[in-house]
């Protein structure tokens, strides 16, 4: 189970947020006396730059959004961090562009990309100052499971309601949604029925969140899937008389439904008397789509810009961005090139919160109240996507299946295409284009041939902007223990308080709470005068469970407090430790897992077998392991549902195997269907997706560096449970 780096749990008053003594004094952040500013961020899905009336739209009605634009600040050169949703949302949340972020592309054929323990979202930053936080709508990262490091609850959002992964979010009438860590069924949508429209549920949940937390600072990240394909909506009567296709009519209705949702949120803020205390932001995650029969040209969805979703030209990455806060945000527009990675440092400054200093964003707090603001040296994008559409392929001149990069520096915009999907190819093999957006906003005239010096400079920026593995300094609190414990035996656990901000934190204090009856003794000081910028403070304890401790998982909780620029901050984390009867020693050499003692194993049909397939039910009654006609001398034979737990003790580097329905099942029936996953310290490292008797086995090759507890899990995938004999063939740990 994961160690989930969580921030403050409790009311904002606990951190004296009512005064914000160290907060900026600019008008844009000076909310009503006695409270810190609320933040509502609405992120639309595939909303084109030109699909709002305030950005030139003539056919689709968006009166509420246009009103906010007229009363607030309209960004004419705001940029999504990527041309498709998963990398765009990862960068938005973490403030890192696609050359540094954890999730840099949409999935090809494998599982959805995930955030990791080292990622810090803007929700985590605000939680350190006591903000109540909610993500309602599409999260967009896998796996579709609770209690794992990529879940919104583990990344700073104390309340989550919606879709966890990308694929599930394509359903406007889903049979379930996630409510924090629980899947909640929607029976009205069972068996293909369309009884309950998901955006309606999300709107109500958002209004409820505002009602509950109206008297304390809050962050609402509202992420409806509107107007992403499919063009599914209860009715499109408003556009019934238009001569457009059915898909276009429904798409227009989706955009108008988004407009209505935002209007209702604003109305609720006004009704509660907190509109002046709340910064409302509306943005898109990438350019407009051409999916499910929608033709973005019907609406001139990109305006005068070239390209749509999946293109790195302006139409694929330039998005609407509106900021509104009566009396606080100035009225007008700004042409500052503003990537959505700027939101994390902006939110941190507004809340008087520390933020990691190794992000790529720049705060725009001053821009909200005046025309002055620091500009980026350059902006960077990378695209590696498995799909295309007719218009996006045309914009790319048929090069949609190539890795592409783009950089904007001043008025110059460079786009280049690799010879295939290899971004390490020599620069001479890339096709390079250069545009002057000041005179050519539609990127129609490639001036690269006449500007060799600029081409060389922009190429160098692209190369320097990409880092294969972006190493970050620790931020916040991370609790780390062995993951396993035995009754009556002492183990060591440590907490690291990382100050990756640019300012010193003073008077840090770290405490650890264990279940009743457990003994906890600090072996290092739990406080010190300060933590310098870029440094960490580590505290260790010896923990002893009682000899009568039940054999079950328990939660250990750590809390760290400190002062940042005069503001109190608090971080919390928890570690799930499983109490077991015995803990085998970790491996001392590279070894097959069938030769390594496990901590425990459970199996759906007879015992887990070593170097044999799971047989008829008795121990050792199965044949040798064979998958798709290939025999394997070593491995583990199981039957879903199955879980095997190993103590690696942080000693191993890689785990490799081949997993699939064993021929023992496949030769008897084709109904077997399973899904195999590998989990290390609570984080999913591998997902086979669905395996059947007819499908090819999946190769497993994952990095397990530092992993203490490894779990091999096989679940039934078709609610049948028959003939689910599965083998982890040649399962091997490399030290």
From TrEMBL:
InterPro entries for this protein: A-galactase_NEW3, Alkaline_phosphatase_core_sf, Galactose-bd-like_sf, Glyco_hyd_98_carb-bd, NPCBM_sf, Sulfatase, Sulfatase_CS, Sulfatase_N
UniProt keywords, alphabetically: Calcium, Hydrolase, Metal-binding, Signal
Signal sequence region: 1-26
Ranges where the Glycosyl hydrolase family 98 putative carbohydrate-binding module domain occurs: 587-735
Keyword field contains Signal: yes
Keyword Hydrolase: yes
Pfam families to which the protein is assigned, alphabetical: NPCBM (PF08305), NPCBM_assoc (PF10633), Sulfatase (PF00884)
CDD domains on file: ARS_like (cd16145)
Gene3D superfamilies, alphabetized: 3.30.1120.10, Alkaline Phosphatase, subunit A, NPCBM/NEW2 domain
Protein family: Belongs to the sulfatase family.
PANTHER family assigned: ARYLSULFATASE FAMILY MEMBER, ENDO-4-O-SULFATASE
Protein name in UniProt: Sulfatase-like hydrolase/transferase
